[in-house]
């Protein structure tokens, strides 16, 4: 019987949050020097620490990907360019890698593939930056002024407010009070760049504007430093995966993953769509920060957590049984992760060390 244990585990997480809100996370950089097994790791940096030149280099690399031919249009008819291939890949794999335990491993390798492609296809010499939202979650005003939304050295801001969203075809199932946008992003380097697939679970050619629908109150609640500190305090991968992906689909159960997506995407923005969210370039910065949190958690008890894995292999299975109990198996290091259309299948074991196997990067 799963319900009582789910409640117990949620209660434990809440307790952990109360007791450890002031705990200082283990600094990732302190551990870096002691675990390097690859030489000269690429360093992923927080967006606001990049120079203006480096910010523009990343933005231009994204635009370069949008100018290169798709290599997977036979799979995803809507893919018009190389950037779209990654949106198509995400859409096609969504049901196998969200609200199940493949979530962190699958996205770690996705970011690696995308970063590698930025470098090889577009001569980009940097890395995927991360967005440490805790720095912007201190107040609603801080969020609105985040450097990631800068019109020149960022990704543009909110869409104009649309009060009535009843005629939208893709609307978040959860009502988010305090949503403030919904219109097309009109500032920044992606203001007039169409999103070619979605919104939602299809890969036909459906060009549409990039929408955002900021929910500042959700950001301050779900991606603040106390939530991150509580996340880092859990003892098992099962609990880490659970707390990052969220304890329920309602606001009180939302944590970092949902908070970053829905705080930006609201009820009708691309970032809120679990299928087509890579249509918003902020997807990459958000997921890099989640990957960083997983790595920080791993390094706090390394090497034991190099092999720490577990949780359901099936979407919406326990502890994500928001729609009832469904059958599942626990994932293992041998569980396959598929990137059909972009790269070969790997196993979870390949993703466990950001300085081992194919990976050689760190977080500053
Ligand atoms: Cu995803």
TrEMBL record:
The keyword Signal applies. Keywords: Copper, Metal-binding, Signal. Residues 98-115, 280-291 form the Tyrosinase copper-binding domain. Residues 1-23 form the signal peptide. Pfam families: Tyrosinase (PF00264). Transmembrane segments: none annotated. InterPro entries: Di-copper_centre_dom_sf (IPR008922), Tyrosinase/Hemocyanin (IPR050316), Tyrosinase_Cu-bd (IPR002227). GO terms for molecular function: metal ion binding; oxidoreductase activity. This is Tyrosinase copper-binding domain-containing protein.
């Amino acid at each position: 019987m799963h319900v009582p244990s789910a409640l117990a585990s949620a209660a434990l997480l809440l307790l952990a949050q109360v007791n450890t809100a002031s705990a200082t996370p283990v600094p990732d950089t302190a551990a870096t020097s002691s675990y390097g097994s690859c030489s000269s790791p690429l360093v992923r940096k927080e967006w606001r620490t990049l120079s203006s030149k480096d910010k523009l280099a990343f933005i231009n690399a994204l635009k370069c990907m949008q100018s290169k031919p798709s290599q997977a249009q036979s799979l995803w008819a809507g893919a018009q360019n190389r950037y779209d291939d990654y949106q198509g890949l995400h859409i096609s794999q969504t049901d196998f890698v969200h609200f199940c335990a493949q979530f962190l491993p699958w996205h770690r390798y996705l970011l690696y593939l995308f970063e590698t492609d930025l470098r090889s296809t577009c001569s980009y010499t940097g890395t995927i930056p991360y967005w440490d939202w805790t720095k912007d979650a201190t107040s609603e005003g801080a969020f609105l002024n985040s450097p990631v939304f800068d019109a020149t050295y960022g990704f543009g801001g909110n869409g104009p407010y649309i009060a009535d969203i009843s005629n939208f075809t893709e609307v978040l199932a959860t009502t988010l009070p305090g949503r403030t946008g919904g219109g097309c992003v009109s500032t920044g380097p992606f203001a007039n760049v169409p999103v070619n697939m979605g919104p939602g679970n299809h890969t036909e050619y459906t060009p549409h504007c990039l929408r955002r629908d900021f929910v500042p109150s959700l950001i301050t609640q779900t991606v603040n430093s106390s939530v991150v500190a509580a996340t880092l305090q859990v003892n098992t991968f099962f609990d880490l995966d659970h707390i990052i992906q969220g304890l329920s689909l309602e606001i009180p159960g939302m944590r970092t993953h949902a908070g970053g997506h829905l705080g930006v995407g609201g009820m009708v923005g691309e970032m809120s769509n679990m299928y087509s969210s890579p249509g918003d370039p902020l997807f990459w910065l958000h997921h890099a920060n989640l990957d960083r949190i997983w790595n920080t958690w791993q390094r706090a008890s390394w090497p034991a957590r190099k092999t720490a894995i577990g949780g359901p292999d099936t979407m919406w299975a326990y502890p994500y049984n928001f729609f009832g109990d469904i059958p599942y198996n626990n994932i293992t290091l041998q569980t396959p992760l598929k990137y059909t259309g972009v790269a070969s299948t790997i196993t979870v074991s390949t993703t466990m060390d950001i300085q081992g196997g194919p990976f050689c990067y760190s977080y500053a």
